[in-house]
Amino acid sequence: MKKVAILGGKRIPFVKSFKEYNHISNQELLAPCLDALIRQFNLEGKRIGEVALGGLLNRPTDWNFSRECVLGTSLDPHTPAYSLQRACGTSLDATIQLGLRIAAGQVDTAISGGSDTNSDIPLLFQRQLAWKLSDLKHAKTFGQRLKILTSIRFKDLSPVYPSIVEPRTGMSMGQHTEKMVKEWGISREAQDELAYYSHINAAKAYEEGFFNDLVVPFKGVTKDTIIRADTSLAKLASLKPAFDHSGSGTLTAGNSTLYTDGAAVLFMASEEFAQQQNWPVKAYLVDGETAAVDYVAGEGLLMAPTYAVARMLKRQHLQLKDFDFYEIHEAFSGQVLCTLKAWEDADYCRKLGWDKPLGSIDRSRLNVKGGSVAIGHPFAATGARIVAQAAKLLEEKGSGRVLISICTAGGMGVTAILEK
């Protein structure tokens, strides 16, 4: 098996939805990321082994999404591409899948990534209207067409807006997380504190120039717009609960991710090929794992990464403490804290196949350059953003190991290990 080298990543600034990137499509968001990556590695006219891109909020016309993105670049048109979707873990899953192909020697190079926008949302017709319009197209006589047209009712004309709720429960991710934090006894104060450090760490990273070679300006935006360098625990504490208004809610707009528009891509190659091209290696993708929970039966919707990490650590003969950095996606501050607390619980870890707790982590190593609460969370772009950020951390340190963990809708989790 060949070593899988992470060579670099590019993304546009992440922005709050319905603002700077309003009415811009997923393909348009990905274009500057891909173009910047192509320029950095002199890939113009070159054929890449495989490209895998994804998005959650795609239009039906984007059925060949990844391939169309490639054809919109200066890459050799012979570059193959496929689309995939695993909710918030989409681009991390793409990275793992392509890493396996590189490791097996099937391809030498690959690009993974993702894009999402709530500001170019694909509205749908009511099913009854869609059926009637389809029948109208195939009607052969004026009488048939007239009959169909007169059957259309006003209620048929109301659009169907995509809703980020679990179809099996009808509950939003935030409502599910409210259940989780109550089950695990996570306080509002602890959630606000984690959110506070997410913003402070991200703001400091910008001040230090950490994101200079990772973030590509787009539409006049040069940096993530959700980060609040001036936030404080007092300001966070003043916000009202966003999902549970019963008086016991603890999730707010301050300790949860906001609807975000953005895109990110990642470039990988076999170590051997990277050396031939004199491309510096930032880090190596060592392993990846996915898992799912039965949230309909009562398991926490966003707890699947606890299973995935447990399996991955056992396979790699590692302990939870054996990492220099922890990049845990902050869908909600409460979700991160539930995960950390579960790994400290002996009874819970027995369900994960361990005879003892996985243990605690050094919190000073958690999301040290900011997490999703501060940076933002364009669903399918987050994985590529995190991997590129983690790889740069290892490049700067010169050695070490990063644990990456992403929870997803549908009760799934995607995790990975990077090393240098």
What is the fourth-level CATH superfamily of one domain?
A: Thiolase/Chalcone synthase
**In percent, how much strand structure appears in the residues?**
15-25%
Rg for CA atoms: 22 Å
Q: How many DSSP H or I helices? A: 14
Plain-language structure description:
With 420 residues, this protein is an alpha/beta fold. Among the domains are: 127-157, no CATH class; 173-210 and 285-419, Peroxisomal Thiolase, Chain A, domain 1 (3-Layer(aba) Sandwich), CATH 3.40.47.10. The protein contains 14 helices and 10 strands. The chain has helices at residues 26-40, 65-71, 90-103, 127-138, 142-151, 173-184, 188-207, 233-237, 271-276, 304-316, 333-343, 346-351, 372-375, 382-397, and strands spanning 4-11, 15-16, 50-54, 81-83, 109-116, 260-270, 283-292, 325-328, 401-408, 412-419. Strands 1, 2, 3, 4, 5, 6, 7, 8, 9 and 10 form a 10-stranded mixed sheet that branches. Strand 3 (50-54), helix 2 (65-71) and strand 4 (81-83) form a beta-alpha-beta unit. Helix 1 packs across helix 2 (65-71), helix 3 (90-103) crosses helix 14 (382-397) and helix 6 packs across helix 11. The chain is globular, with a radius of gyration of 22 Å. The protein starts with a strand and ends with a strand. The mean pLDDT is 96.
